[in-house]
Design a protein that fits this description.
Distance between the termini: 71 Å
CATH class of the largest domain: Alpha Beta
CATH superfamily of the largest domain: Phosphoenolpyruvate-binding domains
Helix content: 25-40%
Largest sheet: 8 strands, parallel, barrel
Length: about 800
Amino acid sequence: MTDNSKYTRWFEEITIDDVPLVGGKNASLGEMYRELTNKDIKIPNGFAITADAYWHVLESAGVLDELKKTLEGLDTDNVTDLSKRGKKARNIVLDAGIPDDLWEEIKTAYDKLCEQYGEDVDVAVRSSATAEDLPNASFAGQQETYLNIHGYHSLKDACNRCFASLFTDRAISYRVNNGFDHFKVGLSIGVMKMVRSDLASSGVIFTIDTETGFENVVFITGAYGLGENVVQGLVNPDEFYVFKPTLKEGFRPIIKKKRGSKEIKMIYGRGDSRVLTRNVDVPEADRKRYCITDDEILQLAKYAVTIEDHYSNKKGKHVPMDVEWAKDGETGELVIVQARPETVQSLKRKDVLETYYLDESTDVIVTGRSVGSKIAAGKVHVISDVSLLADFKSGEILVADTTTPDWEPVMKRAAAIITNKGGRTCHAAIVSRELGIPAVVGAGDATEKLRDGMDVTINCAEGDAGKVHEGILPFHIETVDLKGLEKTKTEIMMNLGNPEEAFAMSMIPNDGIGLARLEFIINSYIKVHPMALVHPEKVKDEKVIRQIEELTEQYKNKEDYFVEKLAQGVATISASFHPKPVVVRMSDFKTNEYETLMGGEFFEFEENNPMLGFRGASRYYDERYREGFALECKAMKMVRDEMGLTNLILMIPFCRRIEEAEKVLEEMKKNGLVRGENGLLIYMMTEIPSNVLMIDEFSKYFDGFSIGSNDLTQLTLGVDRDSEILASTFDERDEAVKKIVSMAIQGAKRNNKHSGLCGQAPSDFPEFAEFLVKEGIDSISLNPDSVMRIALKVVEVEKKIGR
């Protein structure tokens, strides 16, 4: 800064305490530039034009009173009037122009930036309102940003337009809705060296899960080109989740990756064209790849954790962050271009758990990425152009290709939002979170399949996938006050198969996961029979071959596809409940179930009764599946050793004989899973009478026993649990079943092994849960929707028996 600088400040001169002077965006940039560049975080240099400069513009032209008069008596619900007044206000500021003394200072600062980066340097000109990025309001996208600005003429024009953008329609509406006085909010401008992400990729990072508020992950989105497309929701970006606790320990915990379609990218305009940026199509081969490598995902996550830790230490409390990143295509460097406190999940009450449940279901018309975890219903209103916004009525479902900040005055009246394009960090997602309404983004063809006046129900309460159902469906909300809940002596664990529900389910008071099934992950995410990936030459159906090729084309070998997908599914569950134990049952498909997987028909055979056939442990050492089990083991080893999630406990299902236990443990050892090594515990499902009768012998091979009450009831009573005719005789409360369950619990106790139960019975029958507690079981694993109800019952029983 030169001695006579009155209206400019360099980033190195700014701290987070300078929000009144330079706005939230610039204050944050200055804070990071000063404090974090010495921690190897790359941040481009630049300077701020202060809010004093904005007031100087208005005062020099004498237009402040005219501006105030323009906005007097405005009703922001009247979209037509808002548009008219907003345009007039912007023109007043544009006509005021930039005074000569201010412009000379801006030119001097720009010249200094050119000295550092080269003549006629390309810069981003970004607005920074003095009320933005506060704990209770993000001001996301309210004012304008101008990219690829070169030279004095373009810089002056961009600055002038930035000042005027304090009065965009959406900014005016946003201030009214959030209780800010228009004339107590000033506008600062950040002038920052551009990062050449037009030649690479860019995106947004949150240090919290945006939908559930789960705090132990870094959530990264990214797409090719400049970052505006991701922020505006014009592309469906790639998504990545990294687990913070083990990342800090030096592991590589990328627990989830989802490839976006990334159809377009924003790049620099041509030559001297007045078009500063433009969108072009992304080649098909690039769309099918992730926009950054695993090493880059981890590097960005480390940046984000460093930034979060810095802000949290400064504030003396946990401060989740919303960060913008870019990769420079010329240097290959990963660069941070913005960071602000996250303003939705971090403010939610943590002592009340609100869960939405759909009571009935109908056909799903469209699906996309869910935003929020609520359910809403109403009539569809498709908006194809911003000029039609005035027709939108309160309580309707807003359906559009994408939304922009200009739409915000009507978005607040919507019951829910559905867009064709966009990811979880796009404009529609950010605004719907702030408004507390559900949204389904990136739905692809919503504007084609949904028509004006249709009754629909939006369901965002079942994990990552947001579903739009036909008709108005009933739903209910369960609210649990978490204050003052008594802790049970008996561990209350959960059954969980779907990784997409794990972050949300972890909020329910629990002692971990008693049963996580691999079958859901294999069925829903992998879809291919593992042996068809080991021996693709045995698959003879051309259609199936093409489907497998398409799923695995980005992997060096097909086996890696199975291993990575399975590892990430299991890791998501393990991370959600870390450091509590997560018991994962190795695969327990029956032959008829395996056959339905892609390529399964070439590796399975027909059995008269698959329920009692080639399933569970018997497959793991058999030549017909041994190599498939090796892939399962490789995935579990990746979760524990590479991602650091050693809370993962493995469980062997349907192990009929002692010899079988020996063979399975030997197979696991061959594949790098050695009981006791790196704290590895291996449990056995106790679901066959032989498991109970021989529990003393099985105790030499396993660290714990989890009673599978469904199969144990079936085999104790001789009732096929799939039989409709015998359904009435299948009852876990039968005295014979209770007797054998009691024997299992006492046998585990006798051998100092963990005893648990992971069947359906305690979820359905509180009296069965009472029986288990009285028997002294160590843990009961329940369906998530039964946990609170049964936990209260367990507390009551424990008091009664003095446990």
